[in-house]
Amino acid sequence: MADYIPHTEAEVSEMLDFLGMSSLEDLFAHIPAALKLSQGLDIPAGVTEPDASVLFNGYAARNDAAGLLCFAGAGAYDHEVPPVVRALGSRSEFVTAYTPYQPEVAQGVLQAVFEFQTLVSRISGLPIPNASLYDAATGMVEALNMAAGTTGRSKMIISSGIHPHWRQTAQTFARGTGHEIVEVPLVNGITDWSQVDCGNAAAIVVGYPNYFGVLEDISVARSLADQHGALLILGADPIGAGLLKTAGQWGADIFIGEGQPFGTALSFGGPYLGLFACTEDLIRRLPGRIVGETVDTEGRRAFVTTLRAREQDIRREKATSNICSNQTLMAVTAAIQLGWLGTEGLREVAAACVRGAHFLYEQLLEVPGVTPVSDAAFFREFAVRLPISAEQAIVEMAKRGFLAGVSVQQLCGETDPSVEGDLSKVLLLTVTERRTRDEIENFVSALREVVSL
Amino acid sequence: MKNFAAPGGKASSIPLVGREVEPTLFEMSVPGRTSFQLRTTGVPKTDLTELIPSEHLSSQVVPIAEVSERDLVAHFTRLSHRQFSVDLGMYPLGSCTMKYNPKFCDAVAAMTGLNGVHPAAPASLTQGWIELLWTLEQRLVAITGMAGATLQPAAGAAGELTGLLLIRAYHESRGEKRTRILIPDSAHGTNPASVTLGGYEVTTVPSNDRGLVDLAVLKESLGPDVAGIMLTNPNTVGLFEEEIQEIAAAVHDCGGLLYYDGANLNAIVGVMRPGDMGFDVVHMNLHKTFATPHGGGGPGAGPVAVSERLVPFLPGPRPTRNADGTFGWVAAPASIGRVHGWHGNALVLARALAYITVHGSEGLRRVAQHAVLNANWLRVRMSKFLPAAYDRVCMHECTLTATGIKSKFGVKGLDIAKGLLEEGFHSPTVYFPLIVDEALMFEPTETESVQTLEALALAVERLVIRAETDADSLHAAPRTTPVSRVDEARAARSLKATADAS
Predict the structure, then answer these.
(1) Which of A9, A136, B405, B480 has its CA 20 to 30 A from that of A344?
(2) Predicted ipTM?
(3) Do A94 and B168 touch (CB under 8 A)?
C-alpha cells in the first residue's frame, strides 16, 4: 500500500489532540454506524508505483493496435504531435491548474484559451467561439439545444453523413430534451434532401466533409435552412481549414468540430476536444465558458471568463447548458499545436492528407473486387466496399502491420441511412501527413493479398 | 497546541520578473516565419485543384500564427509562469478537491501502448485497454457499493445528466410518468441545469439551520410525481447528511430514486459507500477524488455507477470479460445509448485506475480520514479569527463566514480571497454554497501537510488583522500577482473573445 499523505503518526496524534479526539475514527463518530464499512473495500490491496507500473505495462503491451501503421480515421486521426508540443502541453502549470476562477493567478490558462478561441474563430469563419466542449459528439448536442432555444422548435434534421456516434449521442440526449430527430439518408455518399420535410425544423445539421469524407454542396442545406427558418449547423473537419471553405463562408450559424487533430494523441478516444463557434446573434445562448479580454485596475490587458450569467452556477435550472469542467488542457494544447503548425503548416498538413488519401484511393480501386461507395469528390477520407467483410480485412491487415481503417458496420450497427444495402463490407480509410508513399504502396500490396485469401 | 509553523507550503515565485503584459501569439507573428517539420512522404504533389473541386477550395488563407519554435516555447513557458497550479502551492478551493496529482499516473497516460491506440480499432487489437476499463469499472462499483457502471461521461455534469436519463428510462420502463426532481438549496449549479436537460422540473428543498436537508419539508415535497432526489453527501457545506437513511426510505417509499453527486466523495472514500446509504445512482468526479489533474478546467471524467435495477439501462457499449477470459464490448439490453463520441476520457480513466491501484482499500480509507482530519484541524485553527458557518465536526471541507468582518470593517469574503493570493495561496471557494452569507469554503485535501495548513492559517489571520487596520489595501488586493483585479463588467459589456474582435 502506498499513498501521498505527508502526515507522520506523531503529527496525526498531535492534530487529533488539538481537536480533542483520540483516533481518526472519532472524526466519523457522528455518522450512523450502519453506514460505515466494517471491512475494507472489495478491491486489491495497494501496491507501490514500481509494482503498479508492471501491471500497466501489461495493459499497454496487450494493445496490438498501438504498433500498427494507422489508416483509420472516422474522427480520430494519427497526426504529427511534435516533441515541442508535448513538452509545452505537459507543463504542470497548465496540467495541474483548476478552472480559472481567480483571474489574477490564472492569466496563463486564460490567455492560452483566448488564443485558442481566436484560432477556432478563424478556422470556423465565425466570430463567437467558446472555450471548448467535451468532444464533437456532445458538442453537436449543445448545438441542437442552442437551436431549440433560439427557434422555440424541437425538430432536428440531421444528415446521416454526420458521424454515426454523434448521431447516436444526439438520440440519447433527446430522451431528456424531447427533441425529434430526423436522419436524412445519403445517396452516393451525398445527403438526399429531396424526401425530407424540413418544416418547423429548429436545425439542419450536415457534415463537411461528411463522415465518408465526401464534400457536399453546403449551399443546398443553407437554402433549406433559410426556407424553413432553421439554423444551419455544420460539423466540419478542422483540418479542412487549411484548404476548404470555412463554416462561415458557407453561411453556417453554428460550427462544431472534433479538435483531436490539433495536438491530441489517438488516446483510445479521449480526452478529445469539442470545437464550437457561432454567429453574433446566438451569443446569449452560447454553451459553456468563454474568455474575454479586459483590463486590470492598473489598465493592463487581462483576460477573464465572461458572459457568466448564462452559466449553470448562476442561472441554475435556466442555464444554457450544464457544462462546467470542459477540455481546457486540450484547448491549450490545440493552441500550441496550431502555433507550431502556423499558417503554412496547416495548409501543408491538409494538402498532404488530401494527396495521400487520393493516392491510396486510386491504387485501392486497382485491387480486384474493391469498389467505391461514392464517386463524389472527397477530402481526406473515403469508403470502399471490399469483397470480404471489413472486420475480417482489419484483422488480417493487422497481422501485416496495418490498422486498415474502420469498419462502417462497427460504427453504425447492422443498417444505417448513410449506406445503401449491406454495410458489413464497407471500410472507411484515411491517410494523414504521417504516411509515406512506401507505406501506402505496401498497404495496398497487403490488402491485395488479404482480399484474395 | 504544538506550533507547526514552518517555512514553505505556499507559492513564492510568481511573477518571476516584473508585471509586463505577455503579447499574444498573433502579436508575435512575423510573416514567413515557421516552426513545423513534417515527414517527407514521397507522395506525388498532384495539383490540388485536380483533387478538390474549385467550389470547395477557399480563396482565402486562414491565418494562424507565424512564429519560430523558440518563440513558441518562450511564449507558452511565460504564460505558464502566470498560472497558479497544485504543483506550485496549496489550492484550498472548496468542493474542487485540488489534491496532489501523482506523477506516476501521468506516466501511465504517457505510455504509447495506451495513448497510441485508435478508438475504433477492433476488440482483438485493444485487449489491454478494454481490460483496463473493465477493471476500473469493477473498482468503481466496489468503491460506491453499486452493481454496474458506465465510464463514458466526460465530466461530472455529463455524469449527472446521464444519471438523470437513467432514472427517466427506469421510470418509463415501468410505465410511470414522473416530472419532478428534488434538489437541496445548497446544491451545485450543475444539478438544476442537468435536471432541466433531463426533461424534469426542479423542486428546491430548503436546508435547516444546521445546514442539512430539512427532513420534514422534504417529506412534504414528495409525491407520486417525484422521479428522484439529487444529493451531495457530505453536502456542499461539508456536512454529513446524518438522516440519509430516513431520507432514502422516504424517497423510495414514494417510488423515487436517489442520485448521489460524487463531488464530495473524497470525504468518505473507503470509509462509507453511497450504495449502503440507499443511493441508486452515483457519479464520480475522477479529477477530484482520484487525483487526475484538472487541466485548468478539464479534462475531467464523470463515470456513473448504478444499483441493480438500473444496470439494464446503462450507456454502451460497455467493456465486458468473455467466458474465455478475453475482453470485448457489450450493449446493455435497454441501454439509453451512447453519451460520448467514443469510450469516455480514456486517458483520464487510466490515470484514475493507476491511483486506485497504488492506494488499494486501505490507502483510499486513509485518503478520506486525512482529508477530514485536515479540514477539521483547519476549521478549529481558523475559528479563532474567522468563524465556521456551522460550529460542528465537518467532513473534507469547512465553510467559514466573513459576515463579521464585513459588518465591522467593510471587508468582504472576496477581499479575503483576493488577499490570500498575495500570501501565495490560492483562494478558497467564495460565495458558495449560496445558503451561507459571505461564505469562504476551504478544502485542504489529505495531501497538504500540517505545516502548510499552519502557514495558510497564519496567512488568513494576517488578512483578518489587515481587515481591521488597513481595509483599503484589502479592497485593492491582490497587488503582487501578474495582474491586479480585472474589470469583469467591461469584459461582459464589450465582448472581445478573439484577437480579431474590435
Answers:
(1) A136
(2) 0.98
(3) no
Smallest CA–CA distance from B313 into chain A, residue: A172
Residue A360 grid cell: 491510396
Average pLDDT over residues B35-51: 97
Buried/exposed code over B136-145 (b: 16+ C-beta within 10 A; e: otherwise): bbbbbbbbbb
pLDDT at B371: 98
- Ordered domains of chain B (ranges, CATH): 125-358 (3.40.640.10), 366-489 (3.90.1150.10)
Whether A86 and A80 have beta carbons less than 8 Å apart is answered as no
CA distance A240 to A263: 16
Question: B21, A301: Cβ pair inside 8 Å?
Answer: yes
Last residue of a domain, one of A335, A355, A379: A335
Q: Give the amino acid at B194.
A: S
- What range defines the domain where residue A409 resides? 65-81+342-451
Q: How far is CA B296 from the centre of its chain?
A: 10
**Nearest chain A Cα distance for residue B495, angstroms:** 6
The confidence band for A126, taking pLDDT boundaries of 50, 70 and 90, is very high
The SS3 assignment for B132 reads: helix
**Best CA proximity match to A327, nearest among B101, B300, B162:** B300
- Other CB atoms closer than 10 Å to residue B210's CB: what's the count? 12
Q: Given strand A128-129, what is the order of strands in its sheet?
A: A128-129, A274-278, A254-258, A231-236, A201-208, A155-159, A180-184
Alpha-carbon distances of B397 from A14, B96, B268, B370, B380, rounded to whole Å: 20, 10, 12, 11, 12
Note whether B77 contacts A: Cβ–Cβ < 8 A: yes
| Mean pLDDT on A354-370 | 97
Q: What is the dihedral of CA A210, A213, A215, A220, to 10 degrees?
A: -20
Q: What angle do CA B435, B439, B445 make, to 5 degrees?
A: 110
Cis omega (within 30 of 0) for bond into B317: yes
Q: For position A375, which CATH number holds?
A: 3.90.1150.10
**β-pairing, A186-187 with A128-129?**
unpaired
Q: What distance in Å separates the CA atoms of residue B74 and residue B23, rounded to the nearest whole number?
A: 11
Q: How confident is the model at residue B276 (pLDDT cuts 50, 70, 90)?
A: very high
Q: Report if pTM > 0.90.
A: yes
Statement to judge: residues A346 and A257 lie in one domain: no
Which contiguous run of DSSP H or E holds residue B144?
helix B127-144
Spatial distance between the Cα atoms of A70 and A381, rounded to a whole number of angstroms:
13
Cβ-based neighbours of B209, under 8 Å, separated by 6 or more: none
Q: How far apart are CA B380 and CA A4, in angstroms?
A: 24
Residues A140 and A287 in one domain: yes
Give the count of beta carbons closer than 10 Å to the beta carbon of residue A396: 18
| Contact predicate A408/A426, CB 8 Å | yes
Rounded CA separation B444/B114 (Å): 32
Residue B150 φ/ψ region, left for φ over 0, alpha for ψ in the -120 to 50 degree band, beta for the rest: beta
Of A55, A271, A294, the CB nearest to B299: A271
Asked whether residue A355 falls in the same domain as residue A317, the answer is no
Closest-CA residue of A relative to B351 is A56
How many residues would you count in chain A?
453
DSSP string, A122-180: HHHT-SEE-S-BS-HHHHHHHHHHHHHHHHS--EEEEETTS-HHHHHHHHHHHHHH--E
CA–CA gap between residue A401 and residue A403 (Å, rounded): 7
Eight-class DSSP state of A285: G
Residues contacting A270, CB < 8 A, separation 6+: A135, B119, B154, B299, B340, B341, B342, B343, B344, B345, B346, B347, B348
Assess contact for A93 and B80: CB atoms under 8 A: yes
Residues of B in contact with A434 (CB under 8 A): 39
DSSP letter assigned to residue A22: S
- Picking from B274, B194, B276, the residue whose alpha carbon sits closest to that of residue B234 is B274
